[in-house]
Amino acid sequence: MGDREGIFAGNDPFAIAKTWLAEAEGTEINDPNAIALSTVDAHGLPNARMVLLKEIEGQDAASGGAFVFYTNYESRKAQELDHAGKAAFVMHWKSLRRQIRVRGLVSREDGPQADEYYASRSLKSRLGAWASRQSQPLDSRATLMAEVAKITALKGPNPKRPPFWGGFRILPLEIEFWADGAFRLHDRFRWERCDATSDWSVQRLNP
């Protein structure tokens, strides 16, 4: 495990990630759980956008440990995730001067866990998920708001999760923890494994 200590110490990268995120929740002004998610389309052209990470599953979970977020399955990001089956993201905290980079395999979470998360959202967010045809052309905001009003009348105060909306689970094969260092001599540790059942190997990287 090399000379890892302090904020890098431990044998479970998911536990380290959870600790860093918890610290960021007390220092970041907005959305400490924001991640820059990267995908590629059918032609290999990359795409990136910000999404909100909703859960870090520990390596004792059935998935073998994963990072979970939710979106519209008809969106461009979802189509690219389904096609490639792989993704990467970076989570950066300016206040802490730290970041986490992840690369791994992707699968859908569209069962009871997705239902539970959807039910926990505000009513307006749940109705918005029904109304938005995410990534599709929109002629005006008025059209969108009219669709929201229509859905509100149709679905009522307790709408069920749309069949086209749910989660994605990123099973990491690589996790890199980075912390700012003096004179740009940063600390970097990369965790790697072959699959969800393999042991992790950890290596310090040059800045």
Automatic annotation (TrEMBL):
Keyword annotations:
Flavoprotein, FMN, Oxidoreductase, Pyridoxine biosynthesis
Q: How is the cofactor bound?
A: Binds 1 FMN per subunit.
Give GO terms: molecular function aspect only.
pyridoxamine phosphate oxidase activity
Looking at the record, the residues that make up the Pyridoxamine 5'-phosphate oxidase N-terminal domain are 27-153
Q: Which InterPro entries match?
A: Pyridox_Oxase (IPR000659), Pyridox_Oxase_CS (IPR019740), Pyridox_Oxase_N (IPR011576), Pyridoxamine_oxidase_dimer_C (IPR019576), Split_barrel_FMN-bd (IPR012349)
Which segments constitute the Pyridoxine 5'-phosphate oxidase dimerisation C-terminal domain? 165-207
Q: Which cofactor does it need?
A: FMN
Q: Which reaction does it catalyse?
A: pyridoxamine 5'-phosphate + O2 + H2O = pyridoxal 5'-phosphate + H2O2 + NH4(+); pyridoxine 5'-phosphate + O2 = pyridoxal 5'-phosphate + H2O2
Enumerate the HAMAP family for this protein. Answer: PdxH
This protein's assembly is summarised as:
Homodimer.
Record's protein name? Pyridoxine/pyridoxamine 5'-phosphate oxidase
